[in-house]
Amino acid sequence: MHTPFSGGVKISSILIVLNLKTYLEGTGENSVRIAQACKDVADDSGIDIAVAPQFCDIYRVASQVDIPVYSQHLDSVGAGSFTGHAFSRCIKDAGAVGTLINHSERRLTLAEIDASVQAAKKSGLATIVCTNNVPTSAAAAALSPDYVAVEPPELIGSGIPVSKADPAVVTGSVEAILKVNPAVKVLCGAGISKGEDLAAALELGSVGVLLASGIVKAASPKAALEDLVSKI
Ligand SMILES: O=C[C@H](O)COP(=O)(O)O
């Protein structure tokens, strides 16, 4: 199941990235608990599952659970006179192996996305650039991240899977990215929660999914994760 490393970071044939957003209030132990559920399901299924907690929980999760941890955002600043930024070297030192960039809930300019991809690469972090449609997917691919994750914003948190509601944005992104930079892998997200959603996402040409609410807000995140991988 596992394929070789890219820039020091393992790139799997199928990847599930669980974004915890700010759903878990109060205690980092909740992030650890969900990360452990991801780890258990990854071990049982053989599918790589990564988790993207809040910045302040990266160290706690990475040091307590043997799972790939992604940052939810990263700024392109280097060491210096910058305040309130997510510095790539500190994110890496905290234990992250990669980062989301330009999530729909944390948009950047194209120039900032480019600079963030470069900063992440320089620090040895895998990069997932989020996009909202086919043209932005093509633009993101030109910046050579490891992954582009296409997510129609209107479906995020809706419970309506992109693989059913807007399959063309996934197939269109796959096709456009292949033309621009075939080395870039495609994830899709928004409304994904069930095994049939992941299976459909793979059939559309993506190599995995970026998801959040369907797992994090489930009564049993572990049971929801087990269902997610059940059709593979
Ligand atoms: O980062 C995750 C995406 O925004 C999808 O969120 P969702 O699974 O809650 O729709």
TrEMBL record:
Subcellular location: Cytoplasm
Name of this protein: Triosephosphate isomerase
Subunit structure: Homotetramer; dimer of dimers.
This protein's encoding gene: tpiA
Record's keyword terms, sorted: Cytoplasm, Gluconeogenesis, Glycolysis, Isomerase
EC number: 5.3.1.1
Entry's family note: Belongs to the triosephosphate isomerase family.
An example Gene Ontology molecular-function term: triose-phosphate isomerase activity
Entry superkingdom: Archaea
GO cellular component, as recorded: cytosol
Pfam families for the chain: TIM
Function per UniProt: Involved in the gluconeogenesis. Catalyzes stereospecifically the conversion of dihydroxyacetone phosphate (DHAP) to D-glyceraldehyde-3-phosphate (G3P).
Active site: 103, 151
TM ranges: none
